[in-house]
Amino acid sequence: MTDLSQIVKAYDVRGVVPDQWDETLAELFGAAFVQVTGADAIVTGHDMRPSSPGLARAFARGAAARGADVTEIGLCSTDQLYYASGALNLPGAMFTASHNPAQYNGIKMCRAGAAPVGQDTGLAEIRTLVEDWSDNGAPEPVAATGAVTQRDVLDDYAAHLRELVDLTGIRPLKVVVDAGNGMGGHTVPTVFEGLPLELDALYFELDGSFPNHEANPLDPKNITDLQARVRETGADLGLAFDGDADRCFVVDGNGDPVSPSAITALVAARELAKHPGGTIIHNCITSWSVPEVVKENGGKAVRTRVGHSFIKQEMARTGAIFGGEHSAHYYFRDFWNADTGMLAALHVLAALGGQQGPLSQLVAQYDRYAASGEINSTVDDQAGRLAAIRTAYENREGVTLDELDGLTVTAADWWFNVRPSNTEPLIRLNVEARDAATVARVRDEALSVIRG
Prior knowledge:
By secondary structure, this protein is an alpha/beta fold.
């Protein structure tokens, strides 16, 4: 019996090609996607990995065999695929493994208007169909198979983003962009074209073998080249995109990383200026500064679990105008509630270019606390370790606990969150406090319990 549990994750399909999945399975996924969504037309796109074009074309064959017309937009970033799904009002499938190593590939699927497809919203049913068809044979093609056509939406995507942020009056800026040989090298030149930016392009060559560094800017070692180039050239800022260019990381003119929480707060303030009184979504491990800034700017902050499906669900439920995560995913109501690091980058450029000071000075008002960053501990018993944390802190005076996502422990001048990984035997710890010494003390005490 076929078992796809190793590659069908909570939000997407992801695994090693061809060991765990291949074009034969991709074709079945295309057929199942059409059957579950009931779509008569879909849109597909893919990143620069060597296996991506073949997988995307196989998916299109499977979809067309079930009667759906397929619009292929070809090479694109994930948020460009979301743009196409929103603008064309079609379900979509993006072939990418984001920041994973070269041998991986995957599918991020959405319904029309970029609405997410996850385990609870169709992905489980898609998996069941693909497993069944793998064992018992694919269904016969329908009488009227769909047509497969190609369409380039890069210019339209860039124009849409630039309609959402006013960059007309900004001062000239020098910006270093590290695309990590990923899809930022495809989208940045078009999005930035004509803006008063001196662009210093690092690793813009599309290369799914990632010859320079992993396309995962969340790991500090992967932004060292960007930091060095910003410092060497006296650039105003640096931007780093992950492999499918849906996440954007920022470094200031000193080459120092700007926390995604600070970017979330900065963009939230700008979005609230456009949409007074709006709701902003943030996950439970973003900084205290985010809800503070939202409140100061007349908005309503709503806290939710980590993960894009939870953010998007809350965006839709509350009518929120913006949402941000610690992992540098940024979600916009004006972008079908989907995440786009490129739009967040344009907000940073507009904010920086709209005043004379350096980025470090600009973001200082949004970066108010000391933080540990995410610390992973390998454990044998995730539930047991979480229970041990609860026991250690639940009776302390002045301390509150909540279990929105893992366990969050909050005191007057610090908080920490511990969450089990869904895919590995890890517990993730994040600590924030009013000063670095308190972060160190709370971190060490929590780790002593986590690690026994």
